[in-house]
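[job 0412] stage=fold_complex status=start
inputs:
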Amino acid sequence: MSPVIVCPSCDLAHRQDSIRTTERTQCARCRAWLQHPDGAALDSAIALALCALILLAFSNAYPLVTMQANGNSRDTTLIGAALGFYAQGYASLGALVFLTTVIAPLLQILALLFVLIPLWRGSRPRGQHTLLRVLMQVRVWSFMEVFMLGALVALVRLAKFAHIAPGIALWCCVLLMLCLSELTSITSPEQLWRWVERSRE
Amino acid sequence: MNSPATGRSLGLLLCLNCRATLRDAKLPHSRCPRCESRVHQRKPHSLAITTVLVVAAAVLYVPANLLPVMTTRTFLDDEPDTIMSGVLVLLQSGSWPIAVLVFVASIVVPLLKILALAVLLFSIWRGTSRHRLQRSQLFRMVEFIGRWSMLDVYAVSLLATLVQIQSIASIIVGWGAWAFGAVVVLTLIAARTFDERLLWDTAPHE
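[job 0412] stage=fold_complex status=done
writing structure:
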């Protein structure tokens, strides 16, 4: 292995022996994070991913909010919000909402499970490299926490002229958001590759 | 002062996908031996691609703010709402924390992102080596806050889906929402095509 760590943000080379791998370390020049600590357990990552998968299923199966005005009642699901744009002729906006709130979180969770479960069982997963690459690409487009804030803004605006009842899915989305952010922080690229390399030893 | 040892000066290459350090990579057609993704000394054509994306985002920022993002249609009249008038509606209804949130996320953040990226691109183009740390930190801030401007797109999607009560009121999405969504996506991609290391490639000023 190379005894040098190169900073991903400014390309400065650091001698590895001056850095302990158990600590979060900053680059001496640009202060970017050079590495994240090796701490999390494979089991807890899998447990979190499974939990997120269940929450995502619930978030999509039940209505997010129900609105009542003048005896009329309407509700919407997570996918329904994307379809609302599509129904009004803005397919690209619908696709953007669908990708960032349903597809990206789903792919993120599935890719992680397909890589981590074989590692946990001690077998060599197939398509591991592709899955990890997909995971890194997809993770940046998973916007659950932004969606929650957007939903809050919409509810505040509606609360003025209608009765708004939050649905089960809204609470599932909140939990999903927490789950995903913890999952992302314990499965940094370095950590994932540390697990992969350990399984090859 | 000697110029410090960098990955480039030592002939080392960093895989941005899996963070492996590569020696003796055969550029420009190298793949990372660990994760098999393409590796480059710097992201290819970073300046040109990022510039095009930022210019496109700056152009679309105008209709995104001037065109209505949605129109509320009641049996009395049509009431178009731009992003700014949406903020004012929130302010008048007394929910000022939410109004400030929308104002920052939808108006300030996209503008800040476009300006910051333009300043960074210009500084690299001029080859200046001053304030490198501050510029690097500015870029990281742009990267961090970028996603939060999607907030208004989600709010409009929920409003347009829920408020469809034919006899009383319905909300119709406007082209402003489309332009706004495009601004957010373009700036998000621009932050990913921008290679932060270009800020540090100039020789130190001393």
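[job 0412] summary: Chain A has a mean pLDDT of 88.
[job 0412] exit 0
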